[in-house]
Amino acid sequence: MRTIGLLGGMSWESSAIYYRLVNELVRDRLGGLHSARCVLYSVDFAEIEELQRAQDWDGAGERLGQAARALERAGADFVVVCTNTMHKVADQVAAAVEIPLLHLGDATAAAVLARGVRRVGLLGTAFTMEQEFYRERLAGHGLEVVVPGDADRALVHRVIYEELCRGVVLAESRVAFREVMARLAAAGVEGIILGCTEIELLVGEGDSALPLFPTTRLHAIAAVELALA
Questions:
Q1: pLDDT digit string (tens) for the chain, length 229 residues
Q2: What is the C-alpha separation between 168 and 154, in angstroms, rounded?
Q3: Which is catalytic among the residues 83, 125, 128, 197?
Q4: CB-based contact 42:9 (threshold 8 Å)
Q5: Is 196 a catalytic residue?
Q6: Residues 120, 145: contact at Cβ < 8 Å?
Q7: Which of 5, 37, 189, 222 is the most exposed place for a label (fewest CB within 10 A)?
Q8: How far apart are CA 18 and CA 93, in angstroms?
């Protein structure tokens, strides 16, 4: 079994889900008392969020590159960056190490295409929804990506940072997200990517008539498949 290098802490709420999922998936695949061989490097998210707000992506990339090198030194065979938004600096992180980086966007696109979906809605932080780094990665796989309108994007971003990243899960926010997803469905999308790892704390398959693509789970599945290949 290869050792999975989890680069997390953005937020630790979602990284805890990554850790649980990779271990559950290995147990389900191998049975018995098996669990995942993994190394977790958890950053201080307050420092990363400050760099995000300052638009200092080079500084953020350097910080995560240092963390990736620590994972490599600790014996990781490949790196999993446990966040959608910080895949903005995925190339910088990949360049910092000799081991491969398993890109979340690629794992997500493969799952979307496997369901026969081509026109997909995207929920995530404002960075993920509005900037090109993530949407273009998905489009490179042949997907048409649709994001919510201005007010809905602001709502989704606020709930992620002010609630979910702090471990706060509110029923009224779940209702609001259902309404956002219903509006995406009305816009003609065939499925919706939950493109922020914390969103899976709030909504799941029962919250939308359309197929949902939970990126944390999809990334964890891809990591375990690579680890066991």
A1: 999 999 999 989 889 999 999 999 999 999 999 999 999 999 999 999 999 999 999 999 999 999 999 999 999 999 999 999 999 999 999 999 999 999 999 999 999 999 999 999 999 999 999 999 999 999 999 999 999 999 999 999 999 999 999 999 999 999 999 999 999 999 999 999 999 989 999 999 899 999 999 999 999 999 999 999 9
A2: 18
A3: 83
A4: yes
A5: yes
A6: yes
A7: 37
A8: 19
Nearest residue to 227 via CA among 9, 11, 15, 25: 25
Taking Cα atoms as reference points, which of 10, 8, 65, 66 lies closest to residue 39? 8
Q: How many residues does the chain have?
A: 229
Backbone angles phi, psi at 204, to 5 degrees: -150, -165
One of 38, 82, 165, 196 is an active-site residue; which one?
196
| β-bridge pairing 38-42 and 4-8 | parallel
Query: Which residues face 214 on adjacent strands?
Result: 194
- Contacts of residue 124, Cβ cutoff 8 Å, sequence gap at least 6: 84, 85, 134, 156, 160, 193, 194, 195, 196, 199
Q: Is 83 a catalytic residue?
A: yes
